[in-house]
Amino acid sequence: MGPIGVLALQGDFKKHLDMLASLGADARPFKDASELPELSGVILPGGESTTIGMLMERRGLLEPLRKALVGGLPAFGTCAGAILLSTDIEHSDQLRLGAMDMSVLRNAYGSQVDSFEAKLDFADPENGLRFELEGVFIRAPRIDRLGPDLKVLARFDGAPVLVRQGRMLAATFHPELTASSAVHAYFLTRLCGLPGPQAA
Prior knowledge:
The protein is of the alpha/beta class and 200 residues long. Helices cover 22% and strands 33% of the residues. It has one domain (4-191): Rossmann fold (3-Layer(aba) Sandwich). The protein has helices spanning 13-22, 49-58, 62-70, 80-85, 182-191; strands at 4-7, 27-30, 41-44, 75-78, 86-89, 100-105, 116-124, 129-137, 142-146, 151-156, 159-165, 168-171.
C-alpha cells in the first residue's frame, strides 16, 4: 500500500501530516499529478478554497485528481477541502473537484473572529462506531444539500458537519487542530483500508 498524500499547495497541510504521523501512518505532502498513482488516499486541507483550486489547475492537478477520485481513490477534505470536493458551491463558480454530491455555502458561520469550538457526536451505526469529537470551526462552510448517497456522521445545530460518500469524507471543521485523532483514524482504516488504530 502506498502513502497517504496531503495536498501541500496552501493551507494547514502540516497539521494533517503531524496527525497522520501520530497514528504511525506513512504520509507525505504532494503537489503534482504524477504522484497520484503512488498514493493510497489523499487529504485536502483547510485554507482558501479559491486559491487551492486555482493552484491545482495551474499545476495540472485538478482534472487528474478528479478522475482519481471518480476511480475510487479515498479522499478526506476539511473545511476548504470539503468545499473543493462538493459539486455545488452556493454563489460561486470557483474551480472545484465536484466529486461529492452536496451543496455548500462558504463562510456560513461568519468571519475569522466568529470562529468557535463545539462538542460533536460521531455516529456510524453500520460500522458500530460512536464517539464524541471536538469540532473547531474557522470560517466554516455549511452543507445545505446532500445527495442520496451521502451519509451524515456528525451534525452541529442540525446541519451536517461530517459526511461520507463511498470512499470520500468531508468535514466542515478542523479535526487536525484537536488532540483527538479519531476522524483521521476512521479515514485510514474505514476508507483507505489501512491497518492501524480504530476510530474510537
